[in-house]
Amino acid sequence: MNPTRWPNSASTITRSDVPVSNSPLKPMHAPESNVSLVPEAGVVPRARLAAARVLVVGDVMLDRYWFGDVNRISPEAPVPVVHVQKQEDRLGGAANVARNAAALGAQAGLLCVVGHDEPGERIVELLKDSGVVPHLERDPELLTTIKLRVLSRQQQLLRVDFENTPAHEALLAGLARFDEQLSKHDVILLSDYAKGGLTHVTTMIAKARAAGKPVLVDPKGDDWERYRGATLITPNRAELREVVGQWKSEDDLRARVTALRTSLGIEALLLTRSEEGMTLFTADGGERHASAVAREVYDVSGAGDTVIATLAVMLGAGLPLVEAVSLANRAAGIVVGKLGTATVDYDELFP
C-alpha cells in the first residue's frame, strides 16, 4: 500500500482505514442517515478491566526505528544520506496488540513464535517491561521479523523488512500451548500479519468457540475461510475489498458484508473506514456507525492493533459490543496522535 500524506501531519502514514479524521474542526458523519450511531460509552472502573483476561495469538515482530538528520544527497546515488543519531525498538504485530491490552490494565497473555536471534531476544526483553505474560515458542531456524523504519524530522524515509516462516514443529508446539491457555482466558484475539504464526487459526477458532470463548480476528489476505466461526472480525476497507470486491453504495456494502458473514458463520464485522469512522455489522441485521474522532492525525502505524485490543479488553470486562466499539473508536483517536506503534493507557481513555 502506498504511503498517504494527510493534511496538517508531519509524518507519512503507513497504514490506512483506521477511525480518525483529517479535519481538526469536526468529526465525520455516518455514511447514511438511517444508520444507527454507536452510543458514547461511560467510564469503566479499573477493577473491571483488571479482571479481563485476553489471550493474543499471532505474528510478532520487532519494530525498529532509526532517527537522524538529512543534510546531503549521496554521491553514489540520488538518495538522502541519513546520519543516524538515535535508535529505538518497540514491540510490533501481535506483541503490540498484547501491549495495548496490558496498557489498559487487563491481564494480557501472548502466544507466538520467535527465533533464537538478536531481535528475538530483544522482544523477550521488551515483553518483560510491558506487563504482558509471554507464552513463547522458540524456533532456532526462524529469523524473527523486523520492520526497520528510517526517519528524519518525524518523516519516514524508508522501511526495510526481514522475515521468514516458523517451522512446523514450533507451530504444533504453539497449538498445544494454546490448548493449555484456553481455559485461563476470557477472550481470544487472533492477530494475523501473514507471517505464518497463525497456520492453525481454523483449529484455534473451533476450539475456542467450543469452549464458549469469544474470538476476535484482525484478518490478512483474501482467504477468510480460515476464520470461519469467529465472533468478530475487524478489517479495514482495503482488506475487506480483497474479499468482497469493490462496493458501489452503502446498500451494496451492506449486502456484501451480510453474505460474507452468513457464509462464514461470523457473528459481527467491524469495518474501520479512515476519515469515515467505523461501522459495525451484526448478525441480527443491525448496523451502527461510530464517527471519526476529531483529531489532528500524526501517525496511524499500529492503530488497528489498538482498536482490536481495546475491543477485546472491553468484551473481557463484560461490556456490550456497541460500548466496546465506542471505546475502541476513542482509543484510536488518541493513538494516532503518537509516533509509530504506541499504546493508550487507562487515564488517557478515561480522562
TrEMBL record:
Keyword Kinase: yes
Keyword DNA repair (UniProt): no
GO molecular function, one term: phosphotransferase activity, alcohol group as acceptor
Annotated stretches, region: Disordered: 1-32
SUPFAM superfamilies reported for this sequence: Ribokinase-like
Carbohydrate kinase PfkB domain sequence ranges: 53-343
One GO cellular component term noted in the UniProt record for this chain: cytosol
InterPro entries: PfkB_dom (IPR011611), RfaE_dom_I (IPR011913), Ribokinase-like (IPR029056)
Positions with biased composition (Polar residues): 1-24
Record's keyword terms, sorted: Kinase, Transferase
Protein name in UniProt: D-glycero-beta-D-manno-heptose-7-phosphate kinase
Biological source species: Trinickia violacea
Encoding gene per record: rfaE1
